[in-house]
What does this fold into?
Amino acid sequence: MCVRYVTAISMVLALFAATAHADEGQDRYNAGDYERALKYWQPLAENGDAQAEFGLGLLYETGHGVVQNFDTAQSWYRKAAEQGLSDAQNALGAMYDVGRGVAKDDVQATEWYRKAAEQGNVHAEVNLSTRYQWGLGVPRDINLAIAWLEKASDAGNSVAQANLGFIYLTEDGIKDYSKAAILFQKSTDQGYSGGQNGLGTICFLGLNGPKDYTCAVDWFRKAAAQGAPAAEANLANAYAGGFGVEKDTSLAIFWYRKAAEQGNPDAEKSLGDAYAVGGFGLEKDIDLAIFWYRKAAEKGNFEAQERLQYILDRLHILKG
It folds into this structure.
């Protein structure tokens, strides 16, 4: 079973309720009164109010009260970010991170996250840590990743706690299963799915005692109920192998598909495997196998890369 990380691109919608500067527009937005929020923010933003500019960016990114427009969203975020508003800097970093309204740019994403993190923006601290953890826009530096996660974790951020827990669970040279378990529990106490998935992983692998598949499935199921793709993939593995539950290939495919549709590379690879051989009750379909292997391969899944290349080579031989 592969250990799966919880990634942390913060959603602007989730950030907004926690912004330090409350205003009438925010109150209206949080109440779901998007049209009145728009009317409140529009004139203020046009006069250069950074908080209102950020608010308009939020509306255009989410499509609440306006026609969704990522280009307009990033433009308003940029105006606020250039005035030093950390929530807007983090939001603009996220736009560069995923290529929304701007061309995807790892360096720009990292720099905007850094600007916000250096102001103590907890969500940006988590996002910046991810850049260092995976070497996105900066050289990989696990110590800096840990340092930024510790800052956010100490502030009580549940995503940071889960991400830091997975580093202590998997990173050679600094593994500490006891620390990981404590962090996962802190995250879980706040209801975060990443912490639940982490506790499930510890139970599944027996890292803090004997393996306990029933315990693992219980935590995976709780996290999967929140829509966490890593937990959905882990729950699929449990049903595929009969670990802690009765073996059920239909449920395995159900959870693999849910995880894959959210972009989980391990689930994408597993669907590729199933279609390649006609496993788990699916009809053999090489085109669909290639489709799912390619998706996983593009995310760096080594096994998917190998299997995709094997299939393509075989097809070339047969056509040749």
